[in-house]
Amino acid sequence: MIVAERKPLAEIIEMVQDCKKILVLACRGCVTVCSAGGEREAEILASLIRLGLKKAGKNAEVFDASLVRQCDKEYIDGIDQFKGQYDAIVSTACGVGVNFIANLRPNDHVFPALNTTFFGGSAEQGIWSEQCAGCGDCVLHFTGGLCPVVRCAKSLMNGPCGGSVSGRCEIDPEVDCIWQMIYDRMGRLQRQEELTVSAPMRDWSTSRHGGPRKQVREDLTV
Amino acid sequence: MSFTPDIRLFSCHYTSQQSCADEGHELQQLNFPENVKMTRVVCTGKLEEITLLKAFEDGADGVYVVGCPADGCHNVKGSQRAAKRVEAVRSAWVSLAWKRNGQKCFFFRADCIRNSSVLLRK
To answer: Residues in domain F420-non-reducing hydrogenase iron-sulfur subunit D (chain B) (predicted)?
Structure first.
């Protein structure tokens, strides 16, 4: 899922300080799962914005609502039901949601309530970690399912660097060396021999280096 | 001009049942301040941040939550959860630099409730 966290409250208050009617719009997708921007978090944020603006001597109507997702046109259309009730939207979706509102509502002010942090997962409650870079050229079949692109600080493709110590990364002793994990896992799976094959030079054009990416599925377009 | 703060108390059922017995007469005998409005909750762990914030929006000058000791919660981890939520509200307060009327938010151990009239007067 996409993982995010709320921006500092003072930053959000500053964004909306001149707004009179504010819609805090939750997303019931990934950011609900990571407890950053779901209905509960939007309700809390709306309350904090009310209190923050009141403290600043501003008078504003702040209310909260939610959409199923903010990354599909069909759901963005749901904003129509609030027409006339807001002069700015504070989106608690990830950056995709904020962009979608900006794309599809050219005359609406929209502000981000979250910092979108990474693609990750939660192995234990309240803790998320990055697992995928979305690089567009997956190599997980070579590495036992563990990603060196995002989980190696240097995105090395042919084994660890010289900084790996006792299975930990040189950037932080709390960070596992993913190449040590790959080596150990491939050994357990009796696939260690596969690691002797050098990975070819990587084509990064499928990643961010090729500019904004787009995917078209002709079988799905109408 | 005297100022009587509007204080909201959220108290765990297991904490408050004794104090609330006999239609609150015991609290009166303990000289519990009348400006403190008590709400009993099934467990402080059931309290959401929004409940505390709504109390402030509703005009409370102070909110305090009284629950079981962290290691003695009837529902195991309820008090620990409540303490974190109180801290989240307090942290938001700090980031808003909110000091109007000295609004405050606290978490007390259950055994404080009988002495809280003293604490409140301080």
So the answer is: 9-100
Domain membership of residue B2 (yes or no) is no
A44 contacts on B by Cβ (under 8 Å): 49-50, 53
Q: Is the pLDDT of residue B17 over 80?
A: no
Residue B1 belongs to a domain: no
User: How many CB pairs below 8 Å do chains A and B form together?
Assistant: 32
Q: Which residues contact A144 (CB under 8 A, 6 or more apart)?
A: A182, A185, A186, A189, A191
Share of chain B above pLDDT 70, in %: 71
The burial of B47, by beta-carbon neighbours within 10 Å (0-12 exposed, 13-18 middle, 19 or more buried), is given as: buried
Residue of B nearest to A6 (CA): B92
Select from B50, B53, B98 the Cβ nearest to the Cβ of A55: B98
Of A40, A43, A55, the CB nearest to B96: A55
Phi-psi region of A169 (alpha: psi -120 to 50; beta: other; left: phi over 0): beta
Reported as a single tens digit per residue, the pLDDT across B21-79 is: 666 677 777 777 888 888 889 999 999 999 999 999 999 988 889 888 888 888 899 99
B68, B14 Cβ separation under 8 angstroms: yes
The total domain count for chain B is: 1
Q: Do B98 and A44 touch (CB under 8 A)?
A: no
Domain that holds residue B31: 7-117
- The structural domains of chain A, ordered by start, are 2-118 (3.40.50.2300), 133-206 (no CATH)
- The complex's ipTM? 0.85
